[in-house]
Structure formats: C-alpha cells, structure tokens
Amino acid sequence: MELPEPPECPVCLQPYDGTSTTPRVLSCGHSACDNCLLRLPQPFPHTVRCPACTQLVKFQGPSSLPKNIDLLRLAYSFLKPDGKDRPKPAYLDAKPSTPVTDRHLIPNLWPHEFYLAWKNWVVPEEAVLVEFRHEDGLCSMFRGKILDSSDSWELPTRCLMKGHESVSLVRAGGSLCDDDSKLKYSYVAKVLKILYGMADEERAELGLILRASSLKESQICKCYGLWYNTADHNLYMVRDRYSGSFSEKFSDWRSGFISENGNGGLFSATNFAMIGMELCEAVSALHSEGLFIGYLSITCFDIDHFGHIHIDLNEALVMSRRARKMILEAIQDVGKVKDMEVSLSDSALETLAFINPELLFELLRRENINLKFGPKFEVGYSSDVWSLACTLLWLLIGEPFTDLICNLLQCLVPLSSDVKGSDYTGFYMSWMEKVRNLLETNLVSEFVPLQEILYEGLNIDPASRPSVFDMWKSIRQMIIKPKFDVMANLPQPVEKTIGRCLFLGKLCHLQTDSDKILEIQLVNGLQEKGDNGAADGDQIEAVMVDRDLVEGLTGGHIKCVDLKGHLDCVTGLTVGGGFLFSSSFDKTVQVWSLQDFTLVHTFRGHEYKVMAVVFVDEAQPLCISGDSGGGIYIWGISNPFGQEPIKKLFEQKDWRYSGIHALAISGTGYLYTGSGDKLIKAWSLKDYSVSHVMNGHKSVVSTLAVCNGVLYSGSWDGTVRLWSLSDHSPLAVLGEDAPGNVTSVLSLAACGDALVVAHENGCMKIWRNDVLQKSIQVHNRAILSVGMEGKWVFTGGWDKVINVQELAGDEFQIDPIPLGSITCDSVVTALLYWEGKLFVGQADRLTKVYYYGSN
Fold this sequence. Notes:
Strand 34 and strand 35 form a beta hairpin. Strands 5-9-10-13-12 form a 5-stranded antiparallel beta sheet. By secondary structure, the chain is an alpha+beta fold. It is elongated, with a radius of gyration of 37 Å. The chain is built from 17 helices and 46 strands. Among the domains are: 92 residues, Herpes Virus-1; 129 residues, 2-Layer Sandwich (Phosphorylase Kinase, domain 1); 267 residues, Transferase(Phosphotransferase), domain 1, CATH 1.10.510.
C-alpha cells in the first residue's frame, strides 16, 4: 500500500512544516507557502495570481493572509517522532496531453525560431520600385527615369532605404503562386512562406550568402536582404550596385593607357599591383566566410565610389546560371552530332572563358548522362585561383589572352567526350607554352617576377595552384620589396578546408520558364535515346532538377458561408450552447445553428438598436443583449425558445446618457455593462441588481473584456482601465500618458497576459500587463472590432478588410507578425474566432463564416 503524500506548496513542491514553509490562504481559497508568495510576480500593484487557479487576488504581504491551520495539522501528522520528515514520494511532472483538434482556419506556417532567424532579412515592399518593360522583361523606374535591365536574371533598380542607391536584384526563391483562397497572405508572410518552403540545403546556402554580405568592412557587395516582387511572385536578393562594373571601368582605363603609351596599353607595375591586390583581397574575403564561387568572371567584380573592388554575388549567381544554361543547350545538341561531341557556341565560349577545367568537367558530368569526361579533380577554393589568374592575365594582355583561353575550351570540350581517352598532359603543356610566349612578347621587364605565380595559378591540377594569399604577396612585392615589407613574416592565413561552391549550389539551379522548357526538351531527347538503350529511367530521373514551389494554402482553401436574416448592421457576435448569437441595429438578436448555419430563432422585443450580446454558460444558459436605450434583455436558451425575455433591466438615464455600448461576463456571477454615462456597472446574475459601479473614464465606455481575473474597459477617452474582479477596485490605467494624442478606443481583446487594443485611427496597440509592447498601423481607417484567440489576432473596420496578425515572442517581448488579410464587401463591425471558424459581422446586414474546407 502506497503512503499518502504530505501536503506541499504548489509552487516549490516543498512539504509544509510551519517553519520554513508556512501555508497562507489566498482570497480564492487556495494556499501557497509564504516564501513563494513573496517571489510571485505582481502584474499590478498589491496583486498576485494564484498559482493554482491563476485568479488575480489582493496581496499585501504574507503576514496579511491567514495560515491554513488544517494543512498544518495534516503536515504535522507526516512527521516522524524524531522530527524528521518522511521520505518524499517521487514527483512525476506529467505534462497534460495536447488534444487533437480539427484543421484550423489559420495553419501553423513556421516555427517562431524560424521567424526570428529570418525576419531581419525581409526588405520592406515599398523599398524597391520595379516595373515591367514593354518589350523584353523587367526594368525599374525611379522618378520617371528608366534603367535598362542588363540581363533577364538581374534587375538593376533603385532602393529607397537609404539615399536612393542603385541596387541589383537576383532571384533567390521559387515562385509563390496565389490561389483562390479568401485569405491573402501579407508581404512578410509571403517572404517567410517561400523561405520555409525551400530545401534545407538551399536555405542554408542562402543564409550563408546573406551573412557573408552583411559584414562590415568586407569586400563583398552589401546585401540589404530579401524582397518579394508581387508582379512575378518571386523572391529576390537586394544588393548594392555601384556606378559601374569592373570590366567597364577597366576598359576605359585600358583605352586611356593605349592612347597615352601607344604601345599596346601597357601600364605601370604600381597601377597593376594596386588593382591586383584589391582583386585578391575581395576573393580572400569571400573564402574567409566559407564560400567560393568556382568560376569568377570579370563581371563578378564591382567598384565602389571610393575605387575599391568588391565581389558582386548577385552577378556571380547570374553568370553561374547563364553558364549552366549554356551547358544544357550544348548537351541538347549532342544527339544531332554523330560523333557525340559536345560543342560550345562562340557566345558560350566568351561566357565560359575563365572557367577552370575541373568545374567544366564536373558540370558536363552532372548534366550529361551518356558521356564520360576527362580527369577527375576536386572543385574547391583553388578553383577561384584559376579564374583569378585568368583575370590578372586579362588585365596584363587583354583580348589576345581571351582568344587563347577560348581556344583551350574549344579543344578541351570535344577532347573530353572521347571515351577512349586523350593526351590531356600534352595538349595542356602545348597551351601553356603559348601563354608563356604571349607573356614574354607583351610584358615589360617590371612584370617578369609575376609570371611564375601566374603560371602556377593556371596549373591544371587544383592541388598544385598557389593560394590567394600567395598571389597577393607576390603582387605586393611589385611595389614593396620584401626586405622593406613589415608584413613579409606574417603567418599565412589558414583557409577553410570545407566550403560551399556557389556555382554548384542549389541557388544556381533555380529555373525560369525557359529553363524548364529546355530541361523538358533535354529529358525528352534522353528518353528517345533510352529507347535505343542509351539511357534508362534512373538516368533520366537523375537529370531532373528538384523544384520546390510553395503552395498558397496548405492542404485546401478557406470557404465562406453567408448568414442572411438581419435587416440592418450587425453589431455583436457570441457563441454558446451550440449556437451563434448575432445582434443588430434592427433591434433583434438572431440564433444560428453551428451545425449547418441555419437560422433557428429570432429574439424580438428591444425598442432600440441592439449594441452588444453575450452568452452566460450557467446551469440555465442565458443570452443577454443590451441596446442603445439602456435596456438589458435576458433570454433563456431552451428548446423551444421563448418569445419573451426572462428579465428586463434598465439603466437610469440622465442628460449624458446614450445607452449601452458593451457587455461582458466575468464567470463569477456578474454581468458588466459599459455605457455612455462613462460608468461600468456590475450586475449580479442572482438578483439582477447593480452590485458595484466603477467610475474613472472620461467618455463613453465602448468595449469590455474579461481575462484572468481582470476586467478591461476601453473608452472614447483613449484609455484602457483595468479592474480587479475580486473586489472591483482599479488596478491600472493604460494610455493616459499621451493626452495630446487621444484616439478613441473602439475595441479590445485579451488572452493570457496579452492585451490588444484597437483605436479609431487604425492603430493597434499590444500591451503585456501594464507595459506597451508594440504600436502598429494595421488599417487605414477606424478599427471597429478586434478578435483574439491564442496567438491569432483579427482586426476589421471601415476599410472593409480583415487583417490577421500572429503574436509571437517570449517572456520579454511580443512581436506581431502580419500574416494576411481577407477582403470584405462591407464595413466589418464584429469579429469572433471560435474553434477554427471566423465569424464576421458586417454593416451590409450579413454575417459571414470563414472556415477551412478541403474541397
């Protein structure tokens, strides 16, 4: 037989002993030890929440509360004769199971941790101006000036975040297709849905790029974040775009040198060294963040306003995607050539001019399933060294070197398709000899010491190439001799052994419509070959690129039902007893079935407009309605429904009187009314008399709410007052500190320790206890109603729109996330969210029910 457990404090779980843990009785009837009561937070002055029932109770200190003598006597019976406690049974912290509920109207789209990780990368919608060009794609406009797009992948535009800078846009996420749902996601929600729908590897790569671009004093073009284009429903990276690209600038410099020297455009070692060092530092900055591009073209570099060279990762993505597309086009033509050789067009050769052999072979292997390509080398940080060496040689020699490198590609690709093997060593050595002769012919003596490091950078074996730091030191020696260089003995930076290749990454595989058509054509061609035994189903499946597109609404759409019956504006909604109750200016309260949304009954009898309605869940269920004439009608909920109210109550009128504006039920036997006489009255549901009158507001009491032992009242005076339900004493006043900026409170809702207040100017304020957390403009006009259930907040008003917010945060801060909106046909006058359904009362006499529907 198990021993009974000794009585213990519900907070610290220590047994009561009358000395260190003395039980004190709270006004709600529960007990806790005096030490724990001192440590409980006080949300309002001289109040605590009971740890057992969470009711708000008065607390002036432990000594003001009586001891629980019965618990002390029981505790003494558990003590051994020697005064020591009996062994305490093991405490099992059993968490209540989460009930399984039906599909809710608003699904949980992403974890809060995901939102915190990405929210600061969302560029505001209005920060970027982009419009479609008439002929061939996108361009941007700012104050009437059109900036042409240089490529269909990149959108040079104007950014309004700071100083109207030019920025570049490159697609970073798949398209988000709108559906026919009633709920239209907000701008922020669309960005987060695309991000959350990405594959983990793709999202990790995007995060690495963003973090690398956000470092201060880095030679990587700054990235502002992610911007969603509502025109094409794609997600873009927004990055700094300077006055001109590196290739354009250097072409101008080369022209100047040619005209000045007249001998082929040669310039001083100092000028070259300054440029070459900047190039090496930019590449080194990228490598230090665990990224390497794999293929660096001249257009990947940009020059800022101070003449410093930066790496433009947007342009790098553009070039990578363009190169991949050209490889696909080349492979598509394989079937047209009998000898199965892959050939590159002249434009492809120019685009792929500085690509290294190991990356070229890797691309051909990945995209073509029939041919075997050349030597297998690892793609890594040294792959950027090849492209960097090519860039430096292009600076020194110019177009002759470009022609020479194109000749290499033109010969490498067909050679690589020879399955019998080819003499790569002999061909490569012959090509290097041509490069050496070209350098010796065109370079003057001051560049001779640099030749060896450039030769090493073009080594076909990536493991034998020098590091970027070695190239930087060699270039530096052209202007600072080693014996005078104080940095000569500095240790060489250790490059990361494992990095992420941007060229081979997931972001380079994002497809446009033309790419999808090209891929389908390629697969169809491979299927034809498969019929001849050249390819099988597994090989064809390997060619297909994964595509992750986020659906509009997970697993279905939001449906809507119209409840027609009222003859005037709907003013209030409440649910109870299996029914929906709606009040209206037509002086009636209508009862709707929650099963099939049919009209069950109509309560008639009010002589004035019915302003509010509540449901009382007692032994005898009641529906209570209040009108603009001060009448309070109490209706019995039974089957069949009665035609006459059980009781009629009337407030006393005076010259300021304008009727009842709000009703609330406490759950402790009281009905609360907010009226035009600035008073809040507590009516006893036992004898229907006024038990307490709460005075403090300076204008009409427009809204009431009850939560966790607190009565919240909002008024046209712009304040919210908090009252204790235990003795109806005032607890706090919110919004009183801004008398010069008074905006009427029209509605409020409370859940847990969060309070949402809606104002006449369209502003929504979120309070926790008595501290203002957020104040945001969610509507253009007055907010007439606010509904709250858990973390979801619904607001509607004069602009005929219902905005949906998700309250996320921790114990220190509440962060509202704009999730989406529902467009209505009329002014929204009442809102109620209940068990996954959203009930909306409108000024056009309709009550709408939004719910999740799978069909």
